[in-house]
Amino acid sequence: RRQPQARSRPGTNACWRMAAGLDPVGGRLNYRRYTRIDAPLIGQFYAQLAAVSAAAERIYLVMDNWPVHHHPNATNAVAGDDRVSILWLPTYSPWLNPTEKVWKWVRQRFSHMHEDVEDMDQFGQHLAATLDQAGQDPQALLQYTATGKSKLYS
What we know:
By secondary structure, the chain is an alpha+beta fold. It contains 6 helices and 4 strands; from the N terminus they run ββαβααβααα.
């Protein structure tokens, strides 16, 4: 059997960046789509995560070692919020980050060889719908990412 060939056409190689945050207790998924990501945008996203978690006593932002995550323009956005702590993951350890499991879920259910690969606007709408779908069933998302109250230490 032959592997299916991905369609490609000049001008269709667009790039998006996604930022996502998963509430490991409630299963709420927050995400943003960008054409580019820099430290100020990541900082704004950090602040948005803190804002939607207004009732939380403690917020842990789990970050990998992408240099933009470490930039002062990103980390200073939540530096004044005493509830927020940033947990830096060891290098090359995506299995420790539940959000990486969300990306795996998206790839498995949506993005691999998707029919709208040549229409990036349509692709983006379908991607947003897929992420919204993931957020509509918080318990299933918590189970898939192996998080939730029963999995966390208190």
